[in-house]
Amino acid sequence: MNLALRDIRHKLGRFLLTCAGLGLLLGVALAMVGIYRGVVDEALSLTRALGADLWVVEGGTRGPFAEASRIPGDTREAVARIAGVVAAGSVTFQTVEARAAGTAAASTAGAFRNEAGRERVGAALRVQILGYELDRPGGPPPLAEGRGIAARREMVLDRGAGQPLGAMVEIGGLRFRVVGLTARAVSSGGDPLGWITLADAQELQFRLNAPAARRATASGSAGQPRDTVNAVIARLAPHADPVLITEQLRHWKHLAALTSAEQDNILTRSVVERARKQLGLFTTILLLVSGVIVALIVYMLTMDKLREIATLKLIGAPDRAIVSLVMQQALLLGAVSFASGATLLLLVKDVFPRRVVLGPEELAGVGLVVFVICLLASLLGVRAALRIEPAQALGG
């Protein structure tokens, strides 16, 4: 006789309801694990998209993602002359609140003008903008739709921004037409990425409104050099040693250099470290709560079957048979709950605001943890079952 199967057969509704509740809790714990992996995956999404072997940034800083970095634009030419560097490109990064401005045709026809004649802008879009030099490293990854940038005022945007091809996006008073779309290219903060030309990005960074421009002219600061970038990324020849080239660049006192592995380490160990710790803590708490709930459920189910267990003992069933029955009950409860929670999460994970990464490794790992939790949680029920006296089978 199996206690869990007995519950399913005679009390199907209660068993399924119990599994559904526990499954939701395990689904939340599994979602935390998926979000944790998603945070790491998103943190590395940008560096993978750029495909850089080397990052050259301002001296004394750890790169454009951890600290502010600003270097002269002609640094790229100096980096490109180093032996072993096959290509180099200047890039800028800035997180902006853009606004959807309809389609290019509608904007030209004046469909987005208000009663005062001013053009309307639509919903706000939080986007990280990358400025890069055309035909140099720093451009978008292979596109899912459309084409690459061919001229100024064009942009490539990730699908996560929700804008179709041909849409107009307004950034800092400038309008860009979306000519290409990428898939799953996001920043370490989960914002969709957008690519524009380096010239447009520098114009966005240094563009002043009319009063500020007049004030800058009056103060004599209007002629400040604007050819600055946040970093220079380089691609190396297959035989080149990135560590040696990095050491060579570090001898230039005003520059710092990072290999691709060092940049990834900064992103995963520094930029998103707090989010990783927070998600890890929540996951641990949820699994502990799940263990306590499983223990209480198994204990209650065991106490509901005092007479059946006492009867088994009365007819001579050994203790190991009683222990096996209770543990089977706990494991079946955990297996059904975990399967229902995982199935529900896989069905809805694409609607989460942050990316949820769940692969076979994550599912197997959490499943193993649930297995161990169920075994430990069943000890309370086992203890109660072993303390039942056979004479209770004859009682009222």
From TrEMBL:
TM annotation in the entry: 279-301, 322-348, 363-382
Keywords for the protein's UniProt record, in alphabetical order: Cell membrane, Membrane, Transmembrane, Transmembrane helix, Transport
Entry's localization field: Cell membrane
Regions annotated as coiled coil: none
Domain ABC3 transporter permease C-terminal: 281-390
Membrane-topology annotation of the record: Multi-pass membrane protein
Residue ranges annotated for the MacB-like periplasmic core domain, each copy included: 16-250
Location (main, coarse): membrane
Keyword Isomerase on entry: no
InterPro entries: ABC-4/HrtB_transporter, ABC3_permease_C, MacB_PCD
Alphabetized PANTHER family for the sequence: ABC TRANSPORTER, MEMBRANE PROTEIN, HEMIN TRANSPORT SYSTEM PERMEASE PROTEIN HRTB-RELATED
Protein name (record): ABC transporter permease
Organism: Sediminicoccus rosea
